[in-house]
């Protein structure tokens, strides 16, 4: 499955972001804690060069906490300030003001020496589609300032939001980059709902997710869908071999269809419906706390940069 999605409006949004960078002091980048590397737009590092940086590991309640700690260490080692948050419940949001002040300490001190007092920090909020930027802004502000939705592309243009005397936020549309050189990145973004579902083959996508879960979180599927699914997942050997693993994953998907009563008119198994259920369960966190990737080692990171 070759996944590429870059609607035309994203080019316009990127140009607007580039123009507005000169107005801001800090880039607040939201990433999905389940895919902290894949959900980072590599263009942001170039656009935000020379700006203070704060990364928010959003949806941290859905991610494997041990792996989130590893990601925090990885980002901090590269000069980023990092906070784990859950924008929907507000968890972690109280730590953000202190993180903003720390990230912009040099700028605030520079203003003080010049006699400029109480000038608010101006921060641009960035991230890929459906990572939760608007939900974060509304939760952080304590009121509905930005439109929200559970599909990519809800925020259409940039808008300034004054939170307090010390902080102003610039909300921006979610943007991807023109081409995924690594198809695993595209796959992970499809898993979390950052790619338009209408261009995806959901059964293929579900099979890939089953293959990953069977290897990394072997109890997750059985806990959600029952003993028959657990047995099917347990008997799907050689998941590390992609071809055999996908065949085994389709057998597991059929068992999920049985477990959820997904039947066609002729009483056959409706694996398309089962795939939609599986993906929705994963995206909603009902399969437990799952992280799809670990921090890359230096060799992998260099390949990604190239």
TrEMBL record:
SUPFAM superfamilies, per the entry: P-loop containing nucleoside triphosphate hydrolases
Subcellular location: Cytoplasm
InterPro entries reported in the protein's UniProt record: G_CP_dom, GTP-bd, GTP-bd_ortho_bundle_sf, GTP-bd_ribosome_bgen, GTPase_MTG1, P-loop_NTPase
Family annotation (Gene3D superfamilies): 1.10.1580.10, P-loop containing nucleotide triphosphate hydrolases (3.40.50.300)
Gene Ontology CC entries for this record: cytoplasm
Single GO biological process annotation from the record: translation
Top-rank taxon: Bacteria
Gene Ontology molecular function: any one: GTPase activity
Matches recorded under Pfam families: MMR_HSR1
Annotated binding of GTP, by residue: 58-61, 86-87, 130-135, 174
Keywords, comma-separated and alphabetical: Cytoplasm, GTP-binding, Nucleotide-binding
Residue stretches making up the CP-type G domain: 10-178
Primary localization class, coarse: cytoplasm
Protein function: Required for a late step of 50S ribosomal subunit assembly. Has GTPase activity.
Family to which the UniProt record says this protein belongs: Belongs to the TRAFAC class YlqF/YawG GTPase family. MTG1 subfamily.
Record PANTHER family: MITOCHONDRIAL RIBOSOME-ASSOCIATED GTPASE 1
Protein name from the UniProt record: Ribosome biogenesis GTPase A
Species annotation: Candidatus Lachnoclostridium stercorigallinarum
Lineage: Bacteria, Bacillati, Bacillota, Clostridia, Lachnospirales
């Amino acid at each position: 499955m070759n996944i590429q999605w870059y609607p035309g409006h994203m080019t316009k949004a990127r140009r607007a972001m580039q123009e507005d960078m000169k107005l801001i002091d800090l880039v607040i980048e939201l990433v999905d804690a389940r895919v902290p590397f894949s959900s980072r737009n590599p263009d942001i590092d170039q656009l935000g060069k020379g700006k203070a940086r704060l990364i928010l590991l959003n949806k941290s309640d859905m991610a494997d906490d041990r792996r989130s700690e590893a990601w925090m260490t990885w980002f901090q080692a590269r000069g980023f300030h990092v906070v784990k948050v859950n924008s929907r419940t507000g968890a972690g949001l109280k730590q953000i003001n202190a993180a903003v002040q720390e990230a912009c300490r040099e700028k605030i001190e520079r203003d003080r020496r010049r006699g400029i007092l109480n000038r608010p920090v101006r921060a641009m909020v960035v991230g890929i589609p459906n990572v939760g930027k608007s939900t974060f802004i509304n939760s952080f502000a304590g009121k509905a300032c930005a439109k929200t939705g559970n599909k990519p592309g809800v925020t259409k243009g940039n808008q300034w939001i004054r939170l307090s005397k010390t902080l102003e936020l610039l909300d921006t549309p979610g943007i991807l980059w023109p081409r995924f050189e690594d198809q695993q990145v595209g796959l992970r973004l499809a898993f979390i709902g950052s790619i338009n579902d209408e261009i995806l083959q959901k059964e293929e996508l579900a099979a890939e997710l089953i293959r990953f879960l069977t290897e990394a979180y072997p109890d997750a599927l059985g806990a959600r869908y029952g003993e028959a699914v657990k047995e099917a997942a347990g008997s799907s050997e050689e998941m590390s071999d992609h071809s055999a693993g996908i065949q085994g994953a389709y057998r597991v998907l059929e068992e999920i269809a049985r477990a959820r009563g997904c039947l066609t008119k002729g009483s056959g198994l409706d694996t398309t419906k089962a795939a939609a259920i599986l993906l929705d369960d994963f995206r909603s966190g009902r399969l437990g706390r799952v992280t799809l990737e670990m921090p890359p080692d230096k060799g992998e990171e260099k390949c990604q940069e190239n």
